[in-house]
Amino acid sequence: MQTVILNSIVYILGAYFMGFFSAVPIGISQLEIAKRSLKGFLLSAMMIGIGTTLSDGIYGALAIFGIAPFLKEPNIIAVFRAINSVILIVLGIWAIVSSRNKSSKEDLHQTVLNKNSVSFITGFSLALTNPMIMVWWLIGLNFMTSLGLIDSNNKIYTIIFLASGIAGILSYSLLLSFSVYKSKKFFSDEGISKITRVLGYALLCLALYFAYFSASAYLNIK
Known about the structure:
Layout: H1 2-22, H2 28-38, H3 42-64, H4 74-99, H5 105-108, H6 116-128, H7 133-146, H8 155-183, H9 189-221
Helix pairs in contact: 1-7, 1-8, 2-3, 2-8, 2-9, 3-6, 3-7, 3-8, 4-9
């Protein structure tokens, strides 16, 4: 009995930290979280993370339970990357323009950055255009079950893996939001504007990246 409990704890913690560290590499959502946190919109930044986590969780369920294998098709991925590119271009241009805007603090709080519903939709949409996250879910589940900690045929453990991974992803997003928000006091307004501008250019570079691979995939399909 003790062995079962210990194995279950290791399994849950392992899935949690796999989710946590999968969110560490700098990506689109992390850039958006940093941008909002630096501007002082903590809740808005957290909503980006919540939206992203929800989308990743949906893909996790699709991958693990095999509901939507068609999302792995090259032509489908090409479409998602094209959509992702368009979203990134809009966000990148908006970040660059807003970084040059010298509006007052009262006006700034009326901008899109401080709209929590928009932030949630943005985070959800950005992650939704990345169906390749399903590969991570499948690799992670296969790795954990290969350790022999649990019965791989038990669907309950599969759901626990999914829930633990989601908790890990969300934890990192919230931690990033809070950490960047707290660190903003070390930057001047001009410094924050410069960082926001750099983040905007980074988003445009990512847009070109996704546009290139979308076009490449489309040409190969043809």
